[in-house]
Amino acid sequence: xxxxxxxxxxxxxxxxxxxxxxxxxxxxxxxxxxxxxxxxxxxxxxxxxxxxxxxxxxxxxxxxxxxxxxxxxxxxxxxxxxxxxxxxxxxxxxxxxx
Length: 98
Hints:
Elements: H1 2-22, H2 53-64, H3 78-97
């Protein structure tokens, strides 16, 4: 099945290349297909930007597992503030001792 897909993609690319060679110079050149972010294969129009629904499902699973999460510090976390205050008060005490 995968070989059929690759053959279809190759024949479509050959047809588009032949059509663009026969076309006028005013027509913009066809953009190359973007690569699948999961496996790097050329993207398929049906599953764009992925090459297949399998790669799309893998990517969705990565989102669900939190692999694409942006690390952040919770603003309501008081331990950071307490640690900063403890460090500031220690430096203030050192100045008072002088």
